[in-house]
Amino acid sequence: MKKYGKALIPIIACALMIQYGAAQNPIIRNQFSADPSARVFGNRVYIYPSHDILAAPGKGRVGWFCMEDYHVFSSEDLVNWTDHGMIVQQNAVPWVRPNSYSMWAPDCIERNGKYYFYFPTSPKDTAAYGRGFTVGVAIADKPEGPFVPEPTPIKGVRGIDPNVFIDKDGQAYLYWSAGNIYVARLKRNMLELDSEPQIVADLPSKGLKEGPYLFERNGIYYMTYPHVENKTERLEYATGSSPLGPFKVSGVIMDESPTGCWTNHHSVLQYKNQWYLFYHHNDYSPAFDKARSVRADSLFFEADGSIRKVIPTLRGIGIMPATQQIQIDRYSRLSETGVTVSFLDTLDKFSGWKAVFTQPGAWLQFNTVDLGKKALRSIAVRARAAEGSVLRIHADGVSGQLIAEVKIPAKGDWDTFKMPAQKLPTGIHNLVIESKGRAVEVDWMMFQ
Ligand code: FUB
């Protein structure tokens, strides 16, 4: 195998690792991200997403997708995510059209200790590779890289959204999309097609289909894909008895985005006995749906192997340690009136959200918080109030055990208010924060 190599190494060596806690949706909180391909490698979940940035004059096409590189993220507890930094950059790949800002949805898979990262983008040599998109590969010895791109893209692939599946017999398949979904066998080197591409049958004949993601469970092969049945994409699946199909359209995994994001793109995995759906919405960019954010929610199968529809949540996945900042605005439930959620700073949306209580008795519930094995002693809440108020924290429901009360003086400025807490329960609980006042904003709470 010819390696293109050394040019990339300095880029990767200076990549920053950032760690932050985000059990809540969206889970990637330091940049826009989309099209998550999530994989279990060793004892961690790795996410290989696309990286949306905002176009500007001379940088991509304003009003359209703008994507110049890829990062990889990982977590062991699904709460604390590490950004391992940039792994592939458009202008460091020899065959990519420079500054094409078209590094669309990727995938990554492991074979024999090597990690193969597949990405679709625009080639500079259109005579050789055609106009539009083709798919290339970068290879690493570790899931977080460094990744070294191959000098040329895979021959014979015209399209986007590569997805790779290795069956139990060791045969690898490459899926991709170009209006329809295509499949071809891959050679054992994972770099060349080993069969003519064929259209995957029998998926819906009308409406765009893209973003294929194939997995197998109990002998059923699930071909999952975003499909425009109505106006925007929803996640659907079809089942079959072979990676090549044919497949029978079997249901909807997730309805169209409630926030109007035209695209959705996903992956499905099992980690520590629970299945998860990774997908995207436009949480940090409600007005522009080409600046998206990766989310995750639990996914369940019925006894007959069908997939129960996933309802997107703010709470997301992972058991939240009580000693980390609990972003209660990512609630599991809330009272019918008297509480809303809005951005903390509309000029810096990555600073997150706040809960705004406007009515005494209003509450938010945040599920599965781990209060630990020994009773914690105090609680801290970051809040501000225009009128003095008291926040009451209950375990397991608004009429459940009162575990702490925090006075918030009418101060006007954000501050962290700490109170000793007595008789805090241990173990995992659904916590409720209830306001006794009518003008309180809360950023987070945590126990110490
Ligand atoms: O992220 C760019 C494109 O949008 C992806 O390749 C599609 O799947 C859609 O999510």
Q: CATH-wise, what's the superfamily of the largest domain?
A: Glycosyl hydrolase domain, family 43
CATH level 1 name of the largest domain = Mainly Beta
Model regions low in confidence, pLDDT < 50 over at least 5 residues: 1-14
Taking all residues together, what is the mean pLDDT?
Answer: 94
Helix share bin: under 10%
Shape: elongated
Rg calculated over all Cα atoms: 23 Å
What's the structural domain tally? 2
Strands, count: 31
Terminal-residue CA separation: 54 Å
Briefly note the structural class of the backbone.
mainly beta
CATH architecture of the largest domain: 5 Propeller
Major sheet: 6 strands, mixed
Total count of helical runs of at least 4 residues = 2
CATH overall fold name of the largest domain: Tachylectin-2, Chain A
Bound ligands, each once: beta-L-arabinofuranose
Short description:
The protein has 448 residues and is an all-beta fold. 2% of the residues lie in helices and 44% in strands. It has two domains: 2-299, Tachylectin-2, Chain A, CATH 2.115.10.20; 320-447, Galactose-binding domain-like (Jelly Rolls, Sandwich).
